[in-house]
Design a protein that fits this description.
Keywords: Cell membrane, Membrane, Transmembrane, Transmembrane helix, Transport. The chain is mainly alpha-helical. It contains 13 helices and 2 strands, in the order H-E-E-H-H-H-H-H-H-H-H-H-H-H-H. The chain has one domain: MetI-like fold, CATH 1.10.3720.10. Strand 1 and strand 2 form a beta hairpin.
């Protein structure tokens, strides 16, 4: 009796995916070119952030090894430090004053430049120049001289130096920020030039006034750009340092009226050598900026219009 051998199925052949080696080579080349950025992000950003987070739970004076204190820096900040809360109030007041005024001036100048037929490039560059110069210490010192006793403002109006009056010093610093409206102005101008002219022509045919065209066409069509500038300038305003340092000579005066958050953080960390406390302040600032940005993004759903989404 013979046995019949049942033939076994041959193992499936591996099908080569065309282009896979080439794709892997491209991915490898991409990581090679990205490696400087990845290395810089890890060494210059992520690692310092991790160290700062650790120091926020320690008592560290830059000269002795840090000692673990847990949440003491945070509890002291919120319950035992009145200057901390004065810095919070000064910063919030500055943000509320400077950001809306800067954006309003930037939009007004952008609207004026849009209607210009000749010389637009020259005036756009001229108005943008303060954004390049205003963040420098030299301009801040000149600003202090203008608003100091015997300065230009005092000679013109006879009101005395603003930087020496608690009620006016913060407003002088805010004006320096408003003067640096060039960057948002350029962004506004680019957005205005993208609005179709047919919309204004149709509104004019229907009898809409200039104000109605601005309210019902310009603002809705420009809302994504307005939202971008609002987020960007708000984040920058929370971190303002150089103008307050120069105008108040690093003291935040008079009467702590220009004691901005970052200036007080600098004072605690590098003047008083309480680096652990300063690190805790920095992390609170990061959380607050993140929360404010999240709120702006959340509220943008009700007023930001995107042309590709008709229901927004």
């Amino acid at each position: 009796m013979t046995t019949t051998e049942v033939p076994t199925a041959a193992p499936p052949k591996r099908v080569a995916v065309p282009g896979r080696p080439a794709r892997r080579r491209r991915e490898g080349a991409a990581w090679v070119f990205l490696s400087p950025w990845v290395l810089g992000a890890c060494v210059l950003t992520l690692l310092p952030m991790a160290v700062s987070l650790y120091l926020s739970f320690t008592d560290y004076d830059l000269f002795n090894p840090p000692s673990w204190v847990g949440l003491r820096n945070y509890t002291q900040m919120f319950t035992e430090d009145p200057r901390y809360w004065r810095s919070v109030v000064a910063t919030l007041t500055y943000v509320v004053i400077a950001v809306p005024l800067q954006l309003a001036l930037a939009l007004a100048v952008a609207l004026a430049l849009k209607s210009m037929r000749r010389g637009r490039a020259f005036y756009r560059s001229a108005f943008y120049a303060p954004s390049l110069l205003g963040a420098s210490m030299s301009i801040a010192l000149v600003w202090r001289a203008i608003f100091n006793d015997g300065g230009t403002v005092d000679n013109l109006f006879g009101t005395g130096g603003w930087v020496n009056k608690p009620g006016w010093a913060l407003f002088a610093v805010a004006l320096l920020t408003v003067w640096q409206f060039g960057a948002p102005m350029v962004i506004f101008l680019a957005g205005l030039l993208q609005i179709p002219g047919e919309l204004y022509e149709a509104a004019a045919v229907d009898g809409a006034s200039r104000w109605r065209q601005f309210a019902h066409i310009t603002i809705p069509m420009l809302s994504p750009v307005l939202f971008f500038n609002l987020v960007l300038q708000t984040i920058q305003a929370f971190q303002v340092f150089t103008p307050a340092f120069a105008v108040s000579a690093g003291k935040g005066g008079p009467a702590d009226s220009t004691l901005f958050y970052t200036l007080y953080l600098y004072d605690r960390g590098f003047v008083a050598s309480h680096m652990g406390y300063a690190s805790a302040m920095a992390w609170v600032l990061l959380i607050v900026i993140g929360a404010v940005t999240a709120v702006l993004f959340r509220t943008s759903r009700s007023w930001v219009f995107y042309a590709s989404e008709g229901d927004r």
